Amino acid sequence: MQTERLRELSDATLVARALDGDSAAFVCVLKRYSGIMIGYAVKLTNSHADADDAVQEAFITAWQTLDTLRETDKVKSWLMRIVSRKAIDVIRKRRDSGELNEETNEAAGADPQTQNEINSQLDAASAVLRKLPELQRQTWVLKEMGGYSYQEIADELKLPLSTVRGNLARARKSLLVEMEVWK
User: In angstroms, rounded to a whole number, what is the distance separating the alpha carbons of residues 80 and 10?
Assistant: First the structure.
C-alpha cells in the first residue's frame, strides 16, 4: 500500500522525502527511471553487463550525492548524467582490451519476418557504431540517444565544443553511408 502511494507522488516530492531519510521514496525514484538508465547505459557501453555495473554505480552515487541535487523536479536528467558518467568510466576502464560485447535486441510483438528485418537493421547499425572510433560513438550516443546538447557532451567528455561537433558530424556521416543499403 505504501509503495503504491509513493508511485503516485511527483519526482520533486519523492526527492524531498528521500532527502529527509525516506529510503523507500528514493527506491521509488530509482525504479521509475532504472529502465531508461539501463537502456541508455547499454547504448553507451554496448554491453548489458557493463551497463548493469554502470547503473549500480550510478545508484550508489545518486544516494550519496542526493543532497547536491538543486532542482528536485529534474531528478531524471540528473540520474541520466550520473549514469552517463559511470558508463563512460566503464568504457575507459576497458579501453585497452578493445572488447565489445554484442547483445541482440528483439522487436517485441512483431511478426517473425518483420522482427528478423528489424533485428538485421539493428545489428547493422550496432556494427557500424562498434566500428566508429570510441569518441565518435560516445558523442553520437550522448546526442542521439541521451538528448544531450553539444555543450553538455563537451562537458561530459571533457572535449572542446569544436571536437564534439566534428565527432558527431563524422559519426552521422559514417552511419548514413553504411546504412544506405537499408533505405
Answer: 18
Instruction: Name the CATH architecture for the domain at 111-183.
Output: Orthogonal Bundle (1.10)
User: How does pLDDT run across 132-148, given as a tens digit for each residue?
Assistant: 888 888 888 788 777 78
Residue 108, pLDDT above cutoff 60: no
Record the pTM: 0.57
Domain spanning 1-95, CATH architecture: Orthogonal Bundle (1.10)
Residue in 52, 108, 107, 125 with CA at minimum distance from that of residue 83:
52
Backbone angles phi, psi at 34, to 5 degrees: -65, -40
